[in-house]
Amino acid sequence: MNLVQQWLQKIAGKRETPTQEPPREPIDPNIAAHVLDIWLEQVASLKQLRMHDHADRKLSLARAITLESMQDAPSDPMAWVNIGRVQLADEKFEEATQAFEHARSLANQQGNAAIEGFAGSGLFQVRRRQAAPHEAAPLDLSQPLTQEQYQQFLREKLDQMFYVCQGCGQLNLMAGEHCAHCQFAPKTLEQSRLSITLSRVYFKTQTLLQIALNLQRGKNPFECIIGLDAVVQNIHSDQGILQKIEDNREDDHLNFKTLDRCASCGIKVWSSSAEVCTHCHQSLDRPVLLRLAICVERLCNQWIWTVHTSESTAFEQFVLLLVNMKYQLIRQQMGPSDAQRHKATGLLLQLSPLYTQNMGGVIRIKNPTKVVSEVIDPSVHQDVGPTVDYLRDELKHFLHLMSDSVSLF
User: What is the pLDDT of residue 133?
Assistant: First the structure.
């Protein structure tokens, strides 16, 4: 039985010999791909609104059109990319992997680099969302990683990964994309190696927050990290990584600064819950999803600058959750999943009380709707009061937007 026949049975439950059907116009896989762009966005939105029956019906339509398109053009790699996208949306990771890998193989044979890239991107998304099936042997991170080891690390630890941008000190999920805050991306092999080094491959979360703080204060990472030179020189990197960054320049170039400023006067509005500009008093007219993106970005920086570092697992997991959500919200315009909503609330309740780094103030999260701040020692800094109040307000807004009662669309 060939792969096409296997998929006829797997997706549609058909026999190897299909029953006679009325003739129809063949479905171009590229046209099907454009239809999927809309339908899969609708599926994601319906899931966000908890309209799961409607989402399932839309997925059934998507499965049907991709299956028919694959039957019409079984050697077209785009047809298999489409199948992989639908299986990924349906969280059938094994089937999605098989489809993307077959698409990549066909594209490679046909010399179609663009489709091969689409398939590779699909496999990357599968690895991000798929839980590791077993606990692999730990990698020796004191030695340079081979390509196979690095792929293993990506498959199993990607949801536990983030980088500190060497250009501005912001926390980012991807090192191979232009930073949405300062537009930095590696242009040399040394910069590429440094980006990989300033990550959870080599440093724990608490250390990376201190590194981020030093970079945002204008310090050079080689000056504040002992032995960094030797580590960077042992990192595997090649010119192909730089070429991919250059090829994707137009697609991944975002400027977050244009999103968190007033459209009328261009002044940064610090409060993510503000409805009018504090400078020109014009309405900000921010959609709910954008307000959450700004709130998450503000909390990332508060964890760098204000919150006292804890060695607890909950502290580390909350930082990872913030970075992953920031990527989803800014890069993919996707809201948090139900699991992320519940996890965020649970982690913050575990982390309470949150102390400031100078121990001058404290935030207590008593329940998802009650967050209070208190100044413990006003002598440590003249702005300790406004600082803890600002953090309190951002946490209250975050918990409100992450609650089940708020629709992000």
Answer: 41
